[in-house]
Amino acid sequence: MERLIRSTQELLWERGYVGTSPKAIQRAADAGQGSMYHHFAGKAELAKAAIERSGLELRAAAEEQFEEPGTATDRITHYLERERDVLRGCRIGRLTADPDVMGDPELRAPVAETFAWLRSRLAEIVAEGKRKGEYPDRLDAEQTAATIAAVLQGGYVLARAAGSVEPFELAVQGLINLLPEATK
Amino acid sequence: MERLIRSTQELLWERGYVGTSPKAIQRAADAGQGSMYHHFAGKAELAKAAIERSGLELRAAAEEQFEEPGTATDRITHYLERERDVLRGCRIGRLTADPDVMGDPELRAPVAETFAWLRSRLAEIVAEGKRKGEYPDRLDAEQTAATIAAVLQGGYVLARAAGSVEPFELAVQGLINLLPEATK
DNA sequence: GTCTATACCGCGATAGAC
DNA sequence: GTCTATCGCGGTATAGAC
Question: What is the pTM for the complete model shown?
Answer without folding.
Answer: 0.97
